[in-house]
Write a structure and sequence with these properties.
Blueprint: E1 3-7, H1 19-28, E2 32-39, E3 45-47, E4 52-53, E5 56-57, H2 73-79, E6 84-89, H3 105-116, E7 121-126, H4 129-137, E8 143-148, H5 154-162, E9 167-170, H6 179-185, E10 189-192, H7 198-207, E11 211-214, H8 217-224
Parallel strand pairs: 1-2, 1-11, 2-6, 6-7, 7-8, 8-9, 9-10, 10-11
Antiparallel strand pairs: 2-3, 4-5
Helix pairs in contact: 7-8
């Protein structure tokens, strides 16, 4: 059965990556929620997708100065207790990102927060392979997924296995009918993003992927239940 994850919470009627969006996702009955984590100038872990919020660069701003709707990671995990949570670490060398942490400090802080939370099954993901590797090096008790945006999915299976990652999180356009079989052979899960149309949700369900990450959790639950 394919699980449904609400992408940044259920945010069609409320702001994404907020406690309200997480509460709405829970009320819908999803299996899990995907959220994004960043670090502020004073070292707090906060949940927001973009590097900037209301003209403030999060990495250069103290947590107390951010808008009140930006939650901390620990309070978000507490709100989501009992659900599965995919925590995406926003750490990239992309020019759009104001900072990149290659020291492992960000990963260490996120792992510590995840370990301190109770009652949820948590997967940490990132597009940056080195960051995923740091998560794996932090301990085998942490599940880690490598996020992928394009290319042939087949070329990533052996890399993920050799890196001892738990899963691949590819864009749905990368998935073929054979993808889940290959993932199973490699001991990997496939968590596919961001799947919104009825046609694509149904196709991913037929492919047997472990989970879909979607902006349309109500539709996904209807189709995949």
């Amino acid at each position: 059965m394919t699980d449904v994850y609400a992408h940044r919470g259920a945010h069609l009627n409320t702001r994404e990556n907020t406690l309200d969006a997480f509460r709405e996702a829970r009320a819908l009955g999803v299996a899990g929620v995907e959220l994004d984590v960043r670090r502020t100038a004073d070292g707090a872990l906060v949940v927001h997708h973009d590097p900037v919020v209301e003209l403030m660069v999060i990495a250069h701003t103290n947590a107390r100065d951010l808008p009140g709707f930006v939650p901390h990671l620990d309070e978000s995990l507490a709100e989501l207790r009992g659900l599965r949570v995919n925590v995406e670490i926003k750490n990239s060398r992309d020019p759009s990102e104001p900072t990149y942490d290659d020291s492992g400090t960000l990963v260490g802080d996120v792992v510590a927060c995840v370990r301190a939370s109770t009652g949820s099954s948590i997967l940490i993901s990132c597009f940056d392979r080195a960051t995923c590797r740091q998560v794996r090096e932090a301990g085998n008790d942490i599940e880690v997924a490598w996020l992928l945006a394009k290319g042939s999915l087949g070329e990533y299976f052996e890399i993920a296995r050799d890196e001892r990652f738990s899963a691949l999180n590819p864009h749905y356009s990368m998935v073929t009918p054979e993808s889940q079989r290959h993932a199973t052979e490699m001991g990997l899960s496939l968590n596919v993003w961001t799947v919104n149309s009825a046609r694509d949700l149904t196709a991913m369900g037929h492919a047997g992927v472990a989970s879909v990450i979607t902006d349309e959790p109500a539709l996904a639950l209807e189709l995949l239940a």
